[in-house]
Amino acid sequence: MRPSALKNLVACAPLAFIPMSMALGFAHYRGPACSGDKLGDEAFGPAQGCHVRDDSKGMGVIVSSTGPTDVNQLAVFFKNDSCNEAEVVETIDSDCSNIQEWSSYYVLDVCEGKSADCVME
């Protein structure tokens, strides 16, 4: 993914106003490789901006789809705590992320601002 495609979204909207189908799900686990105690679930969409990691996030995180309209979304993880695109450590759309040195993340819609037939490759 080109760094210019990443956007540092700063808008913040309460989850209650974002349909679940427009968000990615994040399940946080205490241990590496998404093992150990499950620490909690969250769902975020692109409009909700940068999220900073805290102690409740653990080491592993499973990213998952919440519906058909999030097919063009990626979870982007950063080494810094400000979602600075110069320090991207991983981008995933679904799977267990076992990166241990991440400090922030956001959801990127790779088709935002593009034609209606845009599909993430």
Please describe the topology of this protein.
Elements lengths: L23 E6 L8 E7 L6 E2 L7 E6 L7 E6 L9 E5 L2 E3 L6 E6 L12
Antiparallel strand pairs: 1-2, 1-4, 3-8, 4-7, 5-6, 5-8
Keywords: Signal
Task: For the structure shown, list the relevant keywords.
disordered N terminus; single chain; 4-stranded antiparallel beta sheet; mainly beta; 121 residues; Gamma-B Crystallin, domain 1
Percent of residues in helices comes to under 10%
- How many domains, in number, for the residues? 1
Q: State Rg.
A: 14 Å
User: CATH topology, which one?
Assistant: Gamma-B Crystallin, domain 1
Task: Estimate the strand proportion.
Answer: 25-35%
What is the string of SSEs from the N terminus onward?
EEEEEEEE
Number of helices: 0
> What's the mean pLDDT score?
79
Report strand order across the widest sheet: 2-1-4-7
Q: Calculate the terminal CA-CA distance, rounded to whole Å.
A: 10 Å
CATH class: Mainly Beta
* Major sheet summary line: 4 strands, antiparallel
The shape is globular
Low-pLDDT sequence parts: 1-20
Describe it.
With 121 residues, this protein is mainly beta. The chain has a single domain (20-109), classed as Gamma-B Crystallin, domain 1, CATH 2.60.20. The protein is built from no helices and eight strands. The strands form two sheets. Strands 2-1-4-7 form a four-stranded antiparallel sheet, with no helix packed on it. It is globular and about 40 Å long. The protein starts with 23 loop residues before the first strand and ends in a 12-residue tail after the last strand.
